[in-house]
């Protein structure tokens, strides 16, 4: 298991609702959450080690959001 963190532009509950299907569809993701109170809107993902950073970045990009690995 590994934890990945990304700076995102996910700002609110509506944004979270928009990305939920894409993040939930990623294989090997155990849990994820976005800290919208943090100025950097940190996305934290707990996943199996086989999940790549690019998979997460692409899933968000497909929904119109950005993610930068921290």
Task: Please explain how this structure is put together.
With 70 residues, the protein is α+β, with helices and mostly antiparallel strands. The protein has one domain (2-69): Alpha-Beta Plaits (2-Layer Sandwich), CATH 3.30.70.100. Helices cover 33% and strands 33% of the residues. It contains two helices and four strands; from the N terminus they run E-H-E-E-H-E. Strands 2-3-1-4 form a four-stranded antiparallel sheet, covered by helices on one side. Strand 2 and strand 3 form a beta hairpin. It is globular. 19% of the residues are buried. The model has no long low-confidence stretch (mean pLDDT 95).
List keywords for this structure.
four-stranded antiparallel beta sheet; Alpha-Beta Plaits; 33% helix; alpha+beta; 70 residues; 33% strand
State which percent range the strand residues make up: 25-35%
Q: Would you report the number of β strands?
A: 4
Largest sheet: 4 strands, antiparallel
CATH class: Alpha Beta
Q: Could you list the spans in which at least 5 consecutive residues all have pLDDT below 50?
A: none
Helical stretch count?
2
């Amino acid at each position: 298991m590994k934890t990945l963190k990304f700076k995102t532009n996910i700002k609110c509950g509506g944004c979270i609702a928009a990305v939920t299907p894409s993040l939930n569809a990623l294989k090997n993701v155990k849990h994820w959450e976005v800290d919208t109170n943090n100025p950097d809107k940190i996305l934290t993902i707990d996943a199996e080690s086989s999940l790549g950073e690019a998979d997460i970045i692409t899933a968000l990009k497909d929904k119109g959001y950005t993610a930068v690995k921290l």
